[in-house]
Write a structure and sequence with these properties.
- Helix content is 39%, strand content 20%.
- The chain is built from nine helices and 15 strands.
- The longest helix is centred in the C-terminal third of the chain and has 23 residues.
- It starts with 9 loop residues before the first strand and ends with a helix.
- Bound molecules: magnesium ion.
Length: 281
């Protein structure tokens, strides 16, 4: 793979709980992202929400005060569509999901059908009903392949919590006896394809997230340098229960110093390769 010639490092940045929370920008987030843009440090916003397209998300961030382009956004809908296009070019899908997922599948050469699909694809959806669940179930029973954009059980909203993609997937898994293959965080499929979009090596990639079971687990498994921010779902008190730990824990994205972090991440990688050389002797 061709890596960027100039970039020494780059970032995968989760959105909800890292740059905004409940529709409000987290203080310091815009300044951090602006510094990345000014210093031409590659980064991608990484989200397990498949409802919106890259452009929708870029516009939403712009309204919150973060000016980026749609090339700086990577969703689990994009990851799912590019994965399916490699599995079955020009294939067909029955979709329980919204605009972001439908657009991504179309952009990758898929047709959306309502009978005999190659794949049943489930993403975030607030408009599903018993009828579409029954249709999907019958397709699964008849042999369609079962894909989930992600398995997040629920999503925070400004008024509380709503069932997430993972909850819809569980219903279909229970009814069909089939298990979905999930593409979104922490799946290595999305974590790796996002890193490839950045055109960086694993050792140059820093993952910033607020959720241990998706952002940090996904980054940890692929050998990225992981930074947990405490402005979202995982609190400091939750940390001891996890068998894997982030490389760093910071109070918020505002306390991240890019230069120091890059040095830390890259020096960790040098010490790792030194250790592996020693063990090879
Ligand atoms: Mg989050």
């Amino acid at each position: 793979m061709a890596c960027r010639m100039n970039a020494k490092h780059g970032y995968l940045i989760d959105m909800d709980g890292v740059v905004y929370r409940g529709g409000r920008l987290i203080p310091g987030a815009a300044a951090f992202v602006n510094r990345l843009v000014e210093n031409e440090i590659p980064f991608l916003f990484l989200t397990n929400n498949s409802q919106r397209t890259r452009r929708d998300i870029a516009t939403r961030l712009e309204r919150l005060g973060i000016r980026i382009s749609e090339e700086n956004v990577y969703t689990c809908a994009d990851a799912t569509a590019s994965y399916l296009a490699r599995q079955s070019p020009g294939g067909t899908a029955f979709v329980i999901g919204e605009g972001g997922l439908l657009t991504a599948l179309h952009d990758h050469g898929f047709s959306i059908v309502d009978r005999d699909p190659d794949f049943v694809v489930v993403g975030e959806c607030r408009t599903f009903n018993a009828e579409v669940m029954e249709q999907a179930l019958n397709m699964l029973v008849n042999g369609a392949k079962f894909i989930a954009t992600n398995l997040d059980p629920n999503c925070p909203t400004s008024s509380g919590t709503r069932p997430g993609c993972g909850a819809l997937v569980s219903m279909l898994e229970s009814a069909s006896g089939r298990t979905a293959f999930s593409v979104g965080k922490p799946s290595p499929v999305m974590m790796r394809s996002a890193r490839k979009e950045l055109m960086l090596a694993a050792s140059q990639t820093i993952m910033i997230g607020d959720t241990m079971s998706t952002d940090i687990l996904g980054g940890h498994q692929l050998g990225y340098y992981t930074v947990l921010v405490l402005t979202g779902t995982t609190s400091k008190e939750d940390l001891p229960q996890f068998s894997y730990q982030p490389d760093e824990v910071v109070s918020s994205i505002a306390s991240i110093n890019d230069e120091r972090l890059a040095e830390q991440a890259l020096s960790r990688d040098l010490s790792l390769s030194f250790e592996s050389e020693l063990s090879a002797v």
